[in-house]
Design a protein that fits this description.
Blueprint: H1 4-7, H2 19-48, H3 51-61, H4 65-72, H5 91-105, H6 109-119, H7 122-142, H8 147-161, H9 164-175, H10 181-208, H11 216-236, H12 249-258, H13 274-278, H14 281-310, H15 316-346, H16 352-374, H17 382-401, H18 407-411, H19 416-442, H20 449-470, H21 490-498
Length: 499
């Protein structure tokens, strides 16, 4: 059996210029594509709607003069570049459109994790992006038929995208050693923020262009880039270091000894311990904190452009750029958190479990506090509101780079795709609920944004409390059933036996 000292020695092949770093970079680009297609509807919807007609309908049907005054008090802050689109959809309909993506997204998480664990992530990931890119390209044409056609395409995109995060967990399990996991998974995860940042900022600009109608460019661009990435991924990626045609023999041996390749001689024959997963305290703590954190994340993701437009009264160009600012912050905080978390674990300052709980706490408690402050701001303090919004989203980077998003790989690397797929299935429910709740609450009274933020804060706090009390990042006993004892980290086995 390998000694603990041998297991923890530095890799014999450097990270820079390695195949695993190149694959990490391709996965990072794939995540950019994923989130640019996921978020494009948020900014595009602002451009597609005829806000003047919608507001006129609201005023005509609302008998409360108080509400009309609230709507009018900051109209002078709107830019003269205000853009009205062709569609007059109620806020309930807008909520259904924004939430329809997640109806598809929730279905494919667990099947994708199971299939990726058994057969590899290469063609599942590439197929997902191919389908979502084609559906994205079809949106500008189909939306002229009915809003339901847009919702159906969003469901198809969600179905495809639901496979991506389970695939990423499997890719990391097979290509990233434990000592580099936080850093490289954190880097891949920042693709989400880069994708959001790019589509929100450039999407706002595209809306103001006359070419191709403005807002359709958002869908044409994100769909085309997805197809380009798809061919790059198929050409370069393999499901195992053992079969990669460009890998150095030393890096291949190192990866096969220090990743999930050692956990089973043949992943296709591994029996999934479903009962153990669904009765595991560590798994349920992960499922709950992931779901609660995602309520806040999806509220930000789907509703920030609406908040910027309806409450803070920014024009579409400013809206896009300012809506992108929080994702610049979360990008930097994710990279920072992933590096610091890895260092804390490597130097044994805290255990893996303590580190995950610390970074999850930082990534949820501070946003909860900031949201309470944001609830009391109006368009008269709109730039301070933007500052708080940026700060709140920025702190989310701590749970991405060093918190609960890494727990599936920590507790069950052999079944990382399945565990993360189950977790992300639960965590997709807020994506369905949140836009609809926002639409219902703000349909007749814009001041109900305050209630939206209070709900987010309460859910954030509930999730982190559960994770602190019951969460764990130690390798679980049921996850080592198929491990070859001669190839496994002795320390992880001891920790698993104590759990």
């Amino acid at each position: 059996m390998q000694s603990s000292k041998e297991t923890h020695t530095k890799p014999s092949t450097p990270l820079w210029c390695s195949i695993r770093l190149t694959i990490t970079f391709l996965a990072f680009l794939g995540t950019i594509v994923h989130f640019s297609q996921k978020s494009n509807i948020s900014i595009a919807l602002v451009c597609m709607l005829n806000h003047s007609a919608i507001e006129s309908r609201y005023i005509n049907t609302n008998t409360s003069s108080r509400n009309v005054v609230i709507n009018d008090e900051c109209l002078q802050t709107n830019s003269k570049d205000h853009i009205d689109g062709p569609f007059v959809w109620s806020k309930n309909t807008q909520g259904l459109i924004l939430g329809s993506y997640f109806w598809g997204y929730i279905i494919t998480q667990i099947p994708a994790g199971y299939l990726a664990d058994r057969f590899g992530a290469k063609f599942i990931f590439s197929g997902a992006v191919f389908v979502s890119s084609l559906a994205t390209l079809c949106i500008p044409i189909s939306v002229n038929m009915d809003w339901k056609s847009l919702a159906i395409l969003q469901i198809i995109i969600g179905l495809a995208h639901g496979t991506i995060w389970p695939c990423l967990s499997v890719i990391v399990a097979h290509w990233v050693p434990a000592g580099e996991r936080g850093k490289l998974m954190g880097f891949i995860s920042t693709g989400a923020q880069v994708g959001n940042m790019l589509i929100l900022s450039f999407g706002g600009l595209m809306c103001s262009w006359k070419f191709a109608g403005g807002w359709p460019l958002i869908f044409y661009t994100t769909g085309s880039i997805g197809l380009i990435w798809n061919f790059m991924w198929i050409w370069y990626y393999t499901d195992s270091p053992a079969t990669h045609r460009y890998i150095d023999i030393r890096e291949k041996d190192f990866l096969l000894q220090h990743t999930a390749q050692q956990l089973s001689n043949n992943n296709r024959n591994v029996h999934t311990p479903w009962r153990s997963i669904f009765t595991s305290r560590a798994c349920w703590a992960l499922f709950i904190v992931h779901t609660c954190a995602n309520y806040g994340t999806y509220t930000f993701l789907t509703s920030t452009p609406k908040y910027m437009s309806e409450v803070l009264k920014f024009d579409v160009k400013s809206n896009g750029i300012l809506s992108a600012l929080p994702y610049v912050g979360i990008l930097l905080s994710t990279l920072f958190a992933s590096i610091i978390a890895d260092r804390i674990i490597r130097k044994k300052i805290l255990t893996i479990t303590q580190t995950r709980k610390l970074f999850t706490s930082l990534g949820t408690i501070f946003p909860a506090i900031i949201l309470i402050g944001l609830a009391f701001l109006t368009c008269h303090l709109k730039y301070f509101a933007v500052l708080l919004l940026v700060a709140g989203v920025t702190f989310n980077g701590f749970f991405i780079g060093g918190g609960f998003l890494l727990v599936a790989n920590d507790i069950a690397p052999t079944y990382a795709g399945i565990v993360f797929g189950i977790s992300n299935t639960f965590a997709t429910i807020p994506g369905i609920v949140s836009p609809y709740v926002v639409g219902i609450l703000t349909e007749k009274d814009p001041t109900n944004w305050r209630t939206v933020f209070f709900i987010c804060s309460i859910i954030y706090i509930f999730g982190v409390v559960i994770f602190i009390l019951f969460g764990s990042s130690e390798l679980q006993p049921w996850a080592i059933k198929h491990i070859n004892n001669d190839e496994v980290n002795h320390d992880l086995l001891l920790n698993a036996m104590r759990d």
